[in-house]
Design goal:
Chain lengths: 239, 83
């Protein structure tokens, strides 16, 4: 319990601004990126040289993942954009998935980077900027700006505020779910150990909650994050 | 035992966080249950639509969850940040 408030924070003074880094979150975030990159390189080495040859195990795994990602994550897009956005949405999914999963390791200072608000929120803001970029590109400036006047020009402030609130809740959703899970997995075993004085029961509940919040909720929330990113970009490019 | 103003503020913070989380969890729970019930209804009627129904249900439940997440954030701020 005492570990919850304790954080390793490095600060950097740049002129009048003070920039703070949450060191464990940054380190684990970078570590997840490195692990994903190594995994991708390892999988690519398994691809056969000639496309007509028999599929290796790794190649069929990659094909299955690609097929599932294309039919589940970016199903709403028209064809040229679907190919373009598949890597982005798939990376968002796998990055948040591994970030959520890494939190179940019972190692001090290895926490889910997604339980620091800055990381989900920067991903959400990236999706917001990309949605506008693709909206401007596919519909043109006039049509894109006019979509804010739908269904009536008087609703312009509502549309703008709703757009930003959507992004805010997009980031808060991932952050809240993962942080809530992390707090519960710390809180419930601690309270149990103090109330029933029976350490195995507390440990059992700790492992159970860790698995539930880490694996189950982590997977669902990564899927939701990627699906919502896909839906928000789709909303900006359609009609 | 002396009870000062700071103690009362601490009591109020914890009480408010508990109430915030407890009441704030009711709405999303009802909404997610309704979404799951109707998705199951649709799946029973059209089993071939199961994939798309499941995906839409999860996204809808995630949106319905927003208000619960807001109350969680407020409760966390009350406990760890405020005061």
């Amino acid at each position: 319990m005492e570990k919850l408030g304790e954080e390793l924070i490095a600060t950097l003074q740049v002129g009048p601004w003070r920039i703070s880094f949450d060191l464990p979150a940054v380190a684990v975030g970078v570590g997840v990126t490195l692990v994903l990159t190594a995994l991708a390189l390892w999988l690519r080495r398994g691809l056969p040289r000639d496309p007509e040859g028999p599929l290796s195990k790794r190649a069929s795994f990659v094909a299955a993942v690609h097929e599932t990602a294309e039919t589940q994550l970016v199903a709403g897009f028209e064809q040229p954009l679907r190919q373009r956005l598949l890597p982005l949405i798939a990376v968002l999914f796998f990055y948040t998935l591994f970030c959520n999963w890494v939190g179940i390791l019972p190692v001090p200072y290895i926490v889910s980077p997604t339980q620091n608000l800055n990381i989900p929120m920067s991903l959400a803001i990236m999706v917001y900027v990309l949605a506008h970029y693709y909206g401007l590109r596919t519909r043109g400036v006039r049509l894109h700006l006019r979509s804010y006047l739908q269904p009536h020009p008087a609703l312009l402030p509502m549309n703008v505020v709703g757009d930003m609130g959507r992004t805010l809740s997009h980031g808060f959703r991932l952050f809240g779910n993962i942080l809530g899970g992390a707090i519960l997995t710390t809180l419930v075993p601690t309270l149990l150990a103090r109330v029933v004085y029976f350490i195995p029961a507390a440990l059992f509940f700790g492992v159970l909650l860790d698995g539930f919040f880490g694996i189950f909720v982590g997977t669902i929330q990564a899927l939701v994050f990627a699906l919502l990113a896909s839906a928000y970009i789709n909303l900006a490019v359609s009609s | 035992m002396d009870i000062s103003g700071a103690d009362l503020i601490t009591v109020a913070r914890y009480l408010a966080a508990g109430l915030c989380m407890g009441i704030g969890a009711v709405g999303p729970a009802i909404g997610q249950g309704l979404a799951a019930a109707h998705a199951l209804d649709g799946m029973a009627r059209q089993p071939e639509m199961e994939n798309s129904l499941l995906r839409t249900m999860i996204v809808g439940q995630a949106i319905a969850e927003s208000t619960g997440i807001y109350s969680l954030v407020v409760a966390i701020i009350l406990i760890f940040v405020a005061g």
